[in-house]
Design brief:
The chain is of the alpha+beta class. The chain is built from six helices and nine strands. The protein has two domains: about 55 residues; about 160 residues, 3-Layer(aba) Sandwich (Glutaredoxin), CATH 3.40.30.10. It is globular, with a radius of gyration of 32 Å.
Length: about 230
């Protein structure tokens, strides 16, 4: 058969004078029906095989791409203000002071973050080296690493032990849910959210949560107490 010949529903297209047609017309009908049946069965088996194989591949990919996250340490797609990968697990052994913000926030976020800057500078130098501040963006689509770095510089944060975190929106959303921040994006670009500061111990466990106006003296005392428990 010529390589360009295509087998179609009309047998005459493949062969102008089929041998089986010149003998028994009635038998030809049966044979023609049998051939069509075999072709249909073969095609059906092939389609089922492809479908099963495709389904198995998709399932394997789905399983491979699914990660069950049970704590912030399991997050893998976060970055800091320098564009470096950020991991909560890397903070093991240090007390963590954390809040949530977005750089386009007009009032509560900059006020709270500036209060945390005051707190950071008020800590004794030795204690400050064992404390790490973390500010997580609730608007990662806008708050790139460079935007966060500019924001951090503007509020006066000491970036030697402060990470402004952005990255994958699914992971920042997971963090917001984990700490019950309840962000709600508005049409004007603002985000309604709960305002709080969290203290985590050296194992990443939540030890204290502060809302409303921050009592910096009390928070500093709590940080010192947690630091003693870490030892």
């Amino acid at each position: 058969m010529d390589s360009t010949t295509r087998i179609t529903g009309d047998a005459s297209a493949a062969s102008p004078s089929p041998v089986w047609r010149s003998h028994d017309p009635s038998g030809a009908v049966h044979r023609r029906g049998a051939i069509a049946t075999h072709i249909a069965i073969a095609a059906g088996v092939a389609l089922i095989t492809v479908a099963v194989a495709t389904s198995a591949t998709v399932y394997r990919r789905s399983v491979q791409n699914t990660r069950v996250i049970t704590s912030p340490a399991g997050l893998r797609a976060l970055t800091d203000q320098e564009g470096r990968r950020f991991s909560f697990s890397a903070l093991a052994g240090r007390t963590v002071v954390m809040n949530f913000l977005f750089t386009r926030c007009a009032l509560s976020c900059p006020m709270q973050t500036k209060a945390m800057v005051t707190l950071q500078h008020a800590l004794p130098e030795a204690l400050r080296q064992r404390v790490h501040f973390v500010s997580v963006s609730m608007d990662p689509a806008h708050d790139s690493a460079s935007v966060l770095k500019q924001y951090a510089t503007a509020v006066g944060a000491d970036l030697a032990n402060w990470s402004f975190v952005t990255g994958d929106e699914q992971e920042t959303d997971w963090l917001s849910r984990y700490y019950n921040i309840q962000p709600k994006k508005q049409s004007n670009g603002q985000i309604d959210h709960r305002v709080a500061v969290f203290l985590l111990d050296a194992r990443g466990q939540l030890m204290q949560k502060f809302t409303g106006d921050l009592d910096l003296a009390r928070i500093a005392q709590e940080i010192g107490d947690i630091d003693k428990l870490n030892k």
